[in-house]
Amino acid sequence: MQEEKKYRSQDWFGKGGKDGFIYRSFMKNQGVPHDEFTGKPVIGICNTWSELTPCNGHFRELAEHIKRGIWEAGGFPVEFPVMSLGETLIKPTAMLYRNLVSMDVEESIRANPVDGVVLMCGCDKTTPSLVMGAASVDLPTIVLSGGPMLAGHFKGRKIGTSDVWRFAEAYKVGELTQEEFIAAEACMARSAGHCAVMGTASTMASMVESLGLTLPNNASIPAADSRRRALAHLTGRRIVQMVKDDLKMSQILTRKAFENAIMVNAAIGGSTNFVIHLKAIAGRVGVELDLEDFDKLSEEIPFIANVQPSGEHFFEDLYYAGGIPAVMKELEGFLHLDAVTATGAPLGDNIADAGAHNREIIATVDNPFKPNTGLAVLKGNLASNGAVLKPSAASPHLMTHTGRAVVFEDIDDYKARVDDPDLDIDETCIMVLKNVGPRGYPGMPEVGNMTLPKKIIEKGVHDMIRISDGRMSGTGFGTVVLHVSPEAAVGGNLALVQNGDLITLDVPNRSLHLHVSDEELETRRKEWQPLNLGYDRGYVNLYLRHVQQSHEGADLDFLVGNSGTWKLRDSH
Ligand code: FES
Ligand code: MG
Questions:
Q1: Fewer beta carbons below 10 Å: N end or C end of the chain?
Q2: Check: complex ipTM more than 0.85
Q3: Ligand closest in space to the Cα of 446
Q4: Are residues 210 and 71 in the same domain?
Q5: In the structure, which protein residues have their CB atom closer than 6 angstroms to any atom of ligand 1?
């Protein structure tokens, strides 16, 4: 018997004749009884499990808990894999493939008999890539994140990914032996889950929760905590009802939702990568969002979630203190409480009973850990389309500073010369790295927080101004100007900076200025040669021909927007 409502999947499973035979028969080889095909909501579970994405290594088990909830609510779960992006192994950078995965996700959803989708997201790029792809189809969709690792322990101290950068410096100057370095590896990654700090993965998990795409507390429950599995179960239950109610992604992803996400990101000291990914998601659903919106909307939002790298603790601690719902409760006066969420209720209802249990972890807006955070969007002749800096991770004494540029033409040049004792540099200089943008590397890697020259670290100096068209790991910190747009590889003024030029960074006035006259820049521009990147075939060639600049979200230009679930022809 057919249920009254005819779901999209019935265009496959509800068919008579040869087509219906083929669509059902082969599915039955997996032990599916016939009545599963007679009108139940079919729920796709989009799984980014991979042993090459260790942060998502527990997703096969987690998917089983989602299925329990789907079965229980009367749905029919179908799990499918998509390309999985692990930050730690993929060269040259997982970011090069974010848009490729979004295509995989979009086409896998559209082409198959699914009525709703659970997106299983974890390691950094596995969140934006899945959300982007699903948004371009716009079925009822819910996100389940994988959760953070438990904090590591090394020599009696808690550690997380942000310590990698500290260990690297200590190792460089001989304060840590090779043996200690190796011991720290196992101490840090001691449980399932993604980076334990407010890196990009935690930022992305918080982003989808504050956008309203998840059940409450999705972001911060540790991967190893049983409540993560219970949440998976509940997420499975919930997506079935979302399909019955036809609650589509586009009803959740409104301008209000994006504004909420920007404000929450400021309050938690989220990664700078947030800007690029949120811009790309907004592009898929047609929500207007300018780079300046990130700055303006976070102007009054203080830093209230004491998690590394901007704070002291770990993402699991945020969960024990009340999680993202408690953070949003503190921000109640700023947020759009009427924004629709995946629960079916407005945000205000979801957080009605939320509250902070530990003021060392979640502060009030009136008594925050740091006053102004968010993201500073800088403009000037060195970044006419903008650049970003994370004030909460920067040094106050460098926020207004003029220094002499020490230029590295690309990452190889940097690696070859940074520790040269004869490099003409001191801590008042500004390190400039070119050709690490969306096109230049290619793929915009997280190399913007260049490790300082050895001779500077040896003086006990741990921060200098660094400027590049690249990104920085969400776990990184320092006075680092990132995402300079237009990038060097397309001939932006960044490409024209020379050793000895003076640069002024003025964060209070949101300015990044190169003290070189327009005439001189024009002369230099005439001599500038574009890089020959040498990718004459394959995905990277397609990427290079179509990738947008970072201020636009670095999506492929032809992927902006969505195509919905257009009517598909049968396959036989
Ligand atoms: Fe996967 Fe940090 S490396 S989340
Ligand atoms: Mg990262």
A1: N
A2: yes
A3: 2
A4: yes
A5: 55, 87-88, 123-124, 161, 194-195, 199, 201
